[in-house]
Write a structure and sequence with these properties.
The protein is α+β, with helices and mostly antiparallel strands and 81 residues long. The chain contains 4 helices and 3 strands; from the N terminus they run αβααββα.
């Protein structure tokens, strides 16, 4: 029943979108999949950037990391030509 309420409210990476709880500010946390979509690259590349310390990230559990939107923007600025 819950899925019926979420149909049509999906992000570009097919994850349910929270209404009213998420803002588009610098403190937004992105999944690896969302960060990869913004960089137009694979999730493996994003994991590699995080492992090398090139992209700041936050570990939210033993199997999940998140990237601040601000950190991703900083990375893009530093590596833009």
């Amino acid at each position: 029943m819950l899925m019926l309420h979420l149909v049509g409210f999906r992000s570009k990476v097919n994850a349910p979108v929270m209404q009213g709880g998420v803002t588009q500010d610098a403190h937004q946390l992105l999944t690896v999949k969302e960060a990869a979509a913004r960089l137009l690259t694979s999730t493996a590349t994003v994991y590699g950037l995080c492992a090398r310390g090139a992209l700041e990230h936050v570990r939210v559990s033993t199997n999940a990391i998140r990237i601040r939107a601000e950190s991703l923007s900083t990375f893009i600025r530093k590596h833009s030509r």
